[in-house]
Amino acid sequence: MPLTTDEKTVIIKDNAVIEGDTGSPEVQIALLTHKIQKLTDHLKIHQKDFHSRRGLLNMLSKRRRLFNFLIKVDKTRAEGIGQKVGLAK
Q1: Whole domain around residue 68: which residue ranges?
Q2: Which tens digits make up the pLDDT trace of 6-18?
Q3: Between 30 and which of 15, 22, 36, 55 could a Cys-Cys bridge form, CB atoms 3.0 to 4.6 Å apart?
Q4: 3-class SS at 88?
């Protein structure tokens, strides 16, 4: 279930603000979105996996906090990453 290094590098390159950027909110939101999608697929098969469901809820709340922070800092960057990963607001 964890991201492979190839997947991670592709996501980081696609969403990096500058070269070598791994900590910007855009990259973190994109990585969390990919993890959330993989975990959602897992939970469709294993409905009673409540421990993974709790982790999913934690990831969702972290992504929401990062997105709200990005809206406060720079609304155009937030709209860009929102469209790229499929978030609304």
Answers
A1: 5-85
A2: 999 999 999 999 9
A3: 15
A4: coil
CATH number at residue 36: 1.10.287.10
Q: Is the distance from CB of 65 to CB of 55 less than 8 angstroms?
A: no
pLDDT digits (tens, 9 = 90+) for 30-65: 999 999 999 999 999 999 999 999 999 999 999 999
Closest CA to 56 of 33, 78, 27: 33
Q: Nearest-5° angle of CA 83, CA 87, CA 2?
A: 105
Rounded Cα gap, residues 10 and 76, in angstroms: 23
d(CA 51, CA 56) in angstroms, rounded, equals 9
- Alpha-carbon gap, residue 32 to 15, rounded angstroms: 12
Overall pTM surpassing 0.85 (yes/no): yes
